[in-house]
Amino acid sequence: MRFPTSKLKAGDKYKIALMATLIAAAIFLTCYYHAVLKTEVVFSHFFYVPIVLASAWWQRRGILVGLFLVAVLLLGHLFIGGTGPIIDDLIRAGMLLVVSVVVAELSREISGKGRELKESEERYRLIAENAADVIWIMDMEFNRTYTSPSVERLRGFTPEEVGNMTFNEFIAPDSLQKATEMFAEEMEIEERGDGDPDRSRTFEVELICKNGTTVWTEVTASFLRDDEGNPVGMLGVGRDIGDRKRAEEELRLHRERLEEIVEERTAEVRKLGMAVEQSIDGMAITDLDGYLQYVNRAWAMMHRREQEEFIGKYIGFFHDDQRLREEVTRFLDQVIRTGLHQAEIRQFRKDGTTFPSWVTAALLNDEAGDPFGFVVVARDITERKMAEKELRSINEELEGFAYTVSHDLKGPLSTIGLATYTLRELLNELGEGEGWGDTIEIVDIIDRNVDRSGAFIDELLTLAQAGREPEEVIDVDVGVVVRSVLDDKDADIEDGGVIINVDDNLGRVTVNYVHAYQLFSNLIDNAIRHNDSSSPSVEIGHLGEEEDKGHRYIVRDNGSGVPQDILEKIFKPFFKWESEGTGVGLATVEKIIKLYDGEIVAYNDEGACFEFVIRDARIR
Known about the structure:
Beta-Lactamase; five-stranded antiparallel beta sheet; 17 helices; 17 strands; 52% helix
């Protein structure tokens, strides 16, 4: 095949050079696989690359490359030597020729269609280039094949610049979405085959100009079709409707805005009124001096008065006690300083009785940011206080019971322990005789059970104490607590060969130090004792801070985890899922965490994981 290189373009020279390289590589592979590797597998697959490229570039002339490579394949088998029957190479040769012919014919057909489309474009180019409206043509892949020069007057871009732009670069997002939806609708009509082939679609599009502004155009678009009626492209005509659109838009926006304002204000007032009036909490609005302008039904019922009795009165008028009136004044002063304040305040009803309430007040600001009053929300917490009192009483009784049981049981246990010690000493003095070994074993069993019972009583007492509100809370460095726990468990860690991984910074929590120690001690001990991995490790991590002064932590091991059917039972007191332990440790953990308004969850993730949140206690 001869190519006069003097008349060839740079692109054609590149194709010839690449083809020569690929053919040379094919010849080399043939020799190498036959003569050196003594195999025919794989190398002939490479022949498809030059065959497909040649047929695509030079159409039927490219088949010569396929014929040449087929000859190379067969001659290589005959003269260099093949390991398999020649029929295999004949089949491969046939496949190579089929691919070459198919690609050449497809390329030729595509090229012919392109020429027809180009001729069609030329017939209308003169008309389009002299039109005032913008005329454009694009293929079904949304590639612009033509844009009339009038686009520069409309948008500032030259036709060439528009042709190199994507839809996102020259169509506003909202318009692009609508145009995409309309195109999808048109394609559905095409698929159904029930649409008018000469139909067109008119729509409005917001286009982006070169100077960054936008212009509204009205576009009429229709499909360009081939001889069989199939869409092969799109023809569109667009005209500037910016002035009309701006006028319509201004009028529409003005009308809609007025309607929205009325609807919004009406809806807001209605919803706010319903919410406030139906609220179970008492709500009031005052001016900056604390004089009431509005109270809801709950507020009036809470104080056993009518709503009208409050309007215009100072918010503390029903506090007959001077000390309480001063407390309300201090409360409002705090709201002015901080913008929001909460406190427990005792209030008076009309009949003179009092009730505890939890009061939250916030400063009200106008649109300029200037304060003009307060919104106050009060909740009667009588039942909560009674429940807390009852709970404290129950806890005190339980704690007293635990102390009593501890004392009453530890006395006999101590006596039994002393007796077994004395009995062992006497047996040792008497020396070994008949039944001596069995007796010593029985004494050891009694001793072990006395120790186990003592430990169980201690843990029961710890569980009872865990629910008590701490008398002292401090700012605790969690890292120091964890290091102290690990030091105390150093022997267990070393005996088990456990690797401990601790975050560099575990943060600080405002809690009772003993509670913090018990919390991490139980979780770490649980992770060490129940870790059945051959290379056990335990991780203590700080997962970050919560918005409501909560601190999230995780203690995890790399063992087989907790059986799924007992995950929900694991925090119940005295529940044991293995023979060891008392079943009190994790119950103590949950009790401590709940004491600080936290929560804990157990789950399996390549080992047992205990993830919990503990919140700062209020320092009194």
